């Protein structure tokens, strides 16, 4: 899955839309010549302007140590075609092995941060940590300083996976089980019913 020629900038003011549907994410980090990569299911948008995200990273992990030391991290969205690697980096120990080499992960350098980004994902956030007391609870708050996505499945601030099912984002359950992002559908808001009563409404 080659995304090199399809990475297009996403407007920062709207970049949190990339996360609205709750996909599994992958965190990359680096400090003082040491790099690591881990999957993270608990990541969500927090604010719009400037855009912010929250990611849960256990305080005992190598990734957490690298993120706290560098103050930056990469957050990316894997697709169905990358599910095997997503599981692998989430179930192996970065202290014991170099996951990038062990799982043959292609990377490129971040634009605004000095962190390896995974080339074979479909969306990317470059993030700078915002110091906050919430970090005592394994939460990392960060400002998004750059965002881009694979134009084959994201454009005009919307996901469109219909033509490329292997590029659908993933939702992790447990035990190696994933769900692919499903088919989109739209509804129109129903106007409130008129009761005919003259009594004041709350």
UniProtKB/TrEMBL annotation:
Cofactors demanded by this protein: FMN
Database matches in InterPro entries: Flavin_Rdtase-like_dom, Flavoredoxin, Split_barrel_FMN-bd
MF annotations from Gene Ontology: FMN binding; oxidoreductase activity, acting on the CH-NH group of donors, NAD or NADP as acceptor
Database matches in Pfam families: Flavin_Reduct
Keyword presence, Flavoprotein: yes
Residue stretches making up the Flavin reductase like domain: 17-161
Similarity field: Belongs to the flavoredoxin family.
Protein name per its UniProtKB record: NADH-FMN oxidoreductase RutF, flavin reductase (DIM6/NTAB) family
